[in-house]
Amino acid sequence: ISFDISEEVHLPPNLQTFLVSQDGESIVRQFLEQYFTIFDSENRQPLLQAYHESALMSMTMSYPYGQRDKSGSWLNWYTTDNRNIMKVQDPERRQRLLKQGHVAVVQFLQEMPQTKHDIHSFTVDLVIFTPQMIVLTVTGMYKELKTGHKVPPTRSFFRTLVIVPAGTGFCISNETLHVTNATEDQAKNLFKIVVPAVPAAAPSAPALDD
Amino acid sequence: MTQIVKSKIDQACRVAEEFTKLYYETSDKRRHLMSKLYLDSGLLAWNGNGINGNERIQKFFIDLPTSDHIINTLDAQPVLDSAVNGQLTFMIQVSGTVRYQDRVPKSFQQNFIITAQGDKWKIVSDCFRLQEPLTNNDTKS
């Protein structure tokens, strides 16, 4: 005989998409398709138009819990610009590690390793959707290409964008990016469609064949 | 102008340090106070589950298994005025590990938009994601 309150409490299921407003769906889908198609191309310079003139962007990195063998997937490239303010205490360095203005942002994006994102691995959370401001978090996996690893490493990312209206379209005013390695469990699903893609209708680009 | 941005960046970092300390202490040890951290109309997106309003968010937290968060990285920036009309607003990015009840810890990432309401910081939106495969719902491992 045991006690009634010792039963296990379950976590809510993990859902691929949350949209605070259904009206945001097509804008979000279009934006992500366009953004990551350019991001995965040889030239990320056209992203300049996607950012506000005074845009702010920063990146942090860490290894996932319990990953012991990092040898095939060191995150060395990401350490230089890791704006982890728990470690970076100096206010001047905190300023410098924040990319300020669209030119600085895109220059940094341009320097990042070549990537191939798996759009079917994406989760999307649209948490704010008003005429003045859209806030969107995307997570997912990408393969890192041409960085001298024997096997291209599989990274997992968490990216939040603040998007504002600009002219007839939109631009990004703030962005934070977190990069880590995919766990073994995650990586098993890379470039395999597990559930219908983000959100509802499947985006056609980018091509997912290796 | 540049000086204003500079001081806002410094402030965003300091507020983020205080805020995250309080947020994770409260969610691990004093969940009945969670609603005080959010705007009345605040939003939580927890692994894709959307919860609207601070009262419902409070209930959601109380129903979660007990948690223990460890923070690995923290980052913060001021949200540009063009998005928030001059209303002082910060974006905060966190990564770390969380252990629910006696399960194996998992990596998580989280993003907050917080804004000044009177003399208090309040959460406008809170987006939490466990780092796990999409099909792997609520497993014990």
Automatic annotation (TrEMBL), chain B:
Q: What GO CC annotations are associated with the protein?
A: cytoplasm; nucleus
Q: Which processes are annotated in GO (biological process)?
A: mRNA transport; nucleocytoplasmic transport; protein transport
Localization per record: Cytoplasm; Nucleus
SUPFAM superfamilies xref list: NTF2-like
Mostly located where? cytoplasm
What sequence ranges are listed for the domain NTF2? 15-130
Which PROSITE patterns does this entry report, sorted A to Z? NTF2_DOMAIN (PS50177)
Q: Which InterPro entries does this chain map to?
A: NTF2, NTF2-like_dom_sf, NTF2_dom, Nuclear_transport_factor_2_euk
Task: Tell me the first and last residues of the signal peptide.
Answer: none
Which keywords does the record carry?
Cytoplasm, Nucleus, Protein transport, Transport
**Which residues span the membrane?**
none
Matching entries from CDD domains are given as: NTF2
Q: Which domain of life is it from?
A: Eukaryota
**Role played:** Has a role in nuclear-cytoplasmic transport of proteins and mRNAs.
Provide the protein name. NTF2-related export protein
Question: Which species is the source of this protein?
Answer: Zophobas morio
